[in-house]
From TrEMBL:
Its EC number is 3.1.-.-. Mn(2+) binds at E155, H222, D235. Keywords: Antiviral defense, DNA-binding, Endonuclease, Hydrolase, Magnesium, Manganese, Metal-binding, Nuclease. Pfam families: Cas_Cas1 (PF01867). This is CRISPR-associated endonuclease Cas1. Homodimer, forms a heterotetramer with a Cas2 homodimer. It comes from Caldimonas caldifontis. Its cofactor is Mg(2+); Mn(2+). Belongs to the CRISPR-associated endonuclease Cas1 family.
Length: 299
């Protein structure tokens, strides 16, 4: 049975077999195999896939914060019991984290992020300061404005211009952002691709928010939605990641490289999320937003 940090070499998060629970990403991606418990440890019997050779692997769950089960995986009830006992999260995801299907509330033994999140959201001044910080990351500078509606207006103008610029870069004809929730397939190809790309990036943000134990409904820019904070996080990557992902797929579709736009966006997203280590980057951003430094001692 294979053991140790070489288990998923090159994948997101798991860099070593012994990482303090409070300061690691510890994301372990598994696909095409069965996860079970044997002799008190996790066992993954894998078929050969793009990211893992076929084999029988021991999972060092003590050094894992979150196990992400991709396509073709199954687990036993004992896995849920063992992970719940040791505070290891389990989530069912699409390939590369482009979908988030479920993340059971097994999880972290600390509440640092959740408490910091709630405290900032409950205080109107700190809530606005946090929103301004999010906008500063998007713009690359701190804006002097302190009215949230003004900030939203400035951001809206920036995004509108970004759509045009990125579309031009990929040679895509752009007629504006249009989306009918009642009939999403009625949109033109660029808007369809943007819908798919946005959904995939939001799924990555869902995973990051769940991994750190933040509070999805308590958004600082977005409001009302049950995943408002997830949208706050995913929007940090709209210009640099979501738009190029969508328009690049449209270009490939127009050039005859693919005959299925959604599949092309999904394929590109899965590859890009791995290359960019998107979920760990989001985790770090969330901790930075709430000034949570958990690089200290062992859990």
């Amino acid at each position: 049975m294979n053991v140790g940090p070489g288990l998923m070499h090159g994948r997101l998060g798991l860099a070593a077999s012994r990482i303090p629970h409070t300061d690691r990403h510890g994301l372990l991606w598994l696909e095409y195999g069965k996860l079970s418990v044997e002799d008190g440890t996790l066992r993954f019997v894998a078929a050969k896939s793009e990211t893992l050779d076929a084999g029988d692997y021991a999972i060092p769950y003590q050094a894992v914060s979150m196990i992400l089960l991709g396509p073709g995986t199954s687990i036993t009830q004992d896995v849920l019991r063992l992970c719940a006992r040791h505070g290891t999260l389990i989530a069912a995801v699409g390939e590369g984290g482009v979908k988030s299907y479920t993340a059971p509330p097994l999880g972290q033994g600390r509440s640092d992020v959740a408490r910091a999140h709630a405290e900032r959201w409950a205080d109107p001044k700190r809530r606005l300061d946090t929103a301004r910080r999010l906008y500063a990351w998007r713009f690359g500078r701190v804006l002097p404005h302190r009215d949230i509606e003004t900030l939203r207006g400035i951001e809206g103008a920036r995004i509108k211009e970004s759509y045009k610029l990125v579309a031009q870069r990929f040679g895509i004809e752009w007629h504006g952002r249009r989306y009918d929730r009642q009939n999403p397939t009625a949109a033109d190809l660029p808007n369809q691709a943007l819908n798919h790309a946005a959904t995939f990036v939001e799924a990555a943000a869902d995973l990051a928010v769940a991994a750190v134990g933040a509070l999805p409904p308590l958004g600082f820019i977005h409001e009302d939605s049950s995943n408002a904070f997830t949208l706050d996080v995913s929007d940090l990557y709209r210009v640099d990641l979501t738009l190029p992902l969508a328009f690049g797929a449209v270009r490939a579709f127009g050039d005859g490289e693919t005959d299925n736009l959604e599949r092309e966006v999904r394929r590109r997203a899965a590859k890009l999320f791995r290359q960019e280590k998107l979920v760990p980057r989001m985790i770090d951003r969330i901790k930075e937003l709430f000034d949570v430094d958990d690089r200290g001692g062992d859990a």
